[in-house]
Every structure is written in C-alpha cells, then in structure tokens.
Amino acid sequence: MSMRMKLWLFPALLYAIFVFWYTDFGGPLNDAEIEEFINTMTDNGSSPDTIAFIEKFAREDTGRQFLMVNNVDYNENPPNVEGATAGENAEQLMGRYMEHMIPALLSRASHPVIMGPAVYSAMDLVGIDAAEQWDMAALFRYRSRRALLEIVTNPAFGGKHEFKTAALEKTIAYPMEPQLYLGDPRLLLGLILLALTALIDGLLLSRKLQQTQLEH
C-alpha cells in the first residue's frame, strides 16, 4: 500500500467510525422496544398520562436525529430539594441536573448544540401569555428518540429531574427534526478531514516533485 493511499485511508476510517457512532442506524423504534420502555416507566411509577404521551412520541418515530428546543426562565427563589444544599439558587440546581444529563447525553452521541443567555425580552409574541421574559435558550441534539427514551426512562433520571423542576419558573421544550443543519458534526468533520488531508497530500506531492527536479 502506497504512502498516499495510507494518507487518505486513515481519515476515511476515522470518519466512518465517527459516523457509525454518531448515527442511529436502528431505524424507528419497534413494538418490542416501545413496550419495554412502557414497562420501565410503569415500574418507575410514571402516571398513565405521561406514559400515553411518551408512547405516542415513540410510535411516531422516524428513526432520525432531532433537536430539543429549550426556552428557560429560572426561578428566583427555588425551593429546597432533597439531595441539594439548602438555599442553592436556580443555576446551582440546574448544574446538579446537568451533571447527570451531560454524561448520559454524550454516551449516546447526544450533546448541546448551542446555549446562551437571553439578552432582551421576547421581540415577537403571538397567542401566548406570560412569555415575554426568558433567561436563556438552548438546543440539544439527540441521536434518536431511542436515545432520549433510554435517558428519561432510567430510574436515576427521576431524582435528578427534581433539580430541574425546582430551578425553573417556566420552560418550553419541544423536539424538531432539522431539514437544514449546517452545524451537523458529520458535515463539519468531513470537511475538516478532507481539507487537512488534501493539504498534506498536496505538500507531500510538491516535495516529491521538487526532489525529482533536483535529481534531474
């Protein structure tokens, strides 16, 4: 195998490994998987309404990645929560929640996409009351609905979710499947690896050409 072939093979394999890990190739959730999630939620003590809501979400699965859109308004005087120090503010409570969520997300190729504080009140508001003020917004990428359900049906999630509930005055969170997603890491990594490999390949070819010219 030539050096040039090795040069292009390594980033190609690296990219293939990343795409295989980052993409859920399992397709939409099947009936057996959905029933297993339902049974787990039942064992966890979830209400019938919550189970029915999640079941509908699961049965409408497309098998694709999705982004969870979050608008967050912190509670200025959050109550004390078991497992947290008395008097912790909303950001501290949310931090406790994210200590659980971030590892659970990353292990399933899910992650924050963008997060930041709101810098002004709502500038366009139609058909909804008491939604002028927000503290921050965030987008979270999920590899699939399967990944989300693996997290939220985990018994460990129940206690941690209390930190989030106490930290919030109000919130809106809903999933969307992107039709245009220029920040997809698969696209960005592919372009970066292609550019770097092409640059190295060009430099090596240029050096080889210079050596050939010197020999003649």
Indicate the CATH class.
Answer: Alpha Beta
User: Which CATH architecture?
Assistant: 2-Layer Sandwich
CATH fold-type name: Alpha-Beta Plaits
In whole angstroms, the N-to-C terminal distance is 27 Å
Identify low-pLDDT runs: none
**Overall pLDDT:** 93
Helical residue percent band: 40-55%
Number of domains: 1
- Tally the beta strands: 4
Question: Main β-sheet, in a few words?
Answer: 4 strands, antiparallel
Q: Order of strands across the biggest sheet?
A: 2-3-1-4
**N to C succession of SSEs:** HHHEHEEHHEH
Tally of DSSP helical segments:
7
Cα-atom Rg, whole angstroms? 23 Å
Provide the structure class.
alpha+beta
Q: Name the shape in a single word.
A: elongated
Share of residues in strands? 5-15%
How would you describe this structure in keywords?
four-stranded antiparallel β-sheet; 4 strands; Alpha-Beta Plaits; alpha+beta; elongated
Give a quick precis of the structure.
The chain has about 220 residues and is an alpha+beta fold. Helices cover about 55% and strands about 15% of the residues.
How would you describe this protein?
The chain has helices spanning 3-22, 31-43, 48-59, 90-106, 145-152, 155-167, 185-215; strands spanning 66-74, 111-117, 136-142, 168-176. The protein has 216 residues and is an alpha+beta fold. The protein has a single domain, classed as 2-Layer Sandwich (Alpha-Beta Plaits). The chain has a 4-stranded antiparallel β-sheet with strand order 2-3-1-4. Helix 2 (31-43) runs antiparallel to helix 3 and helix 4 (90-106) runs antiparallel to helix 6. The chain is elongated, with a radius of gyration of 23 Å. The two termini are 27 Å apart. The model has no long low-confidence stretch (mean pLDDT 93).
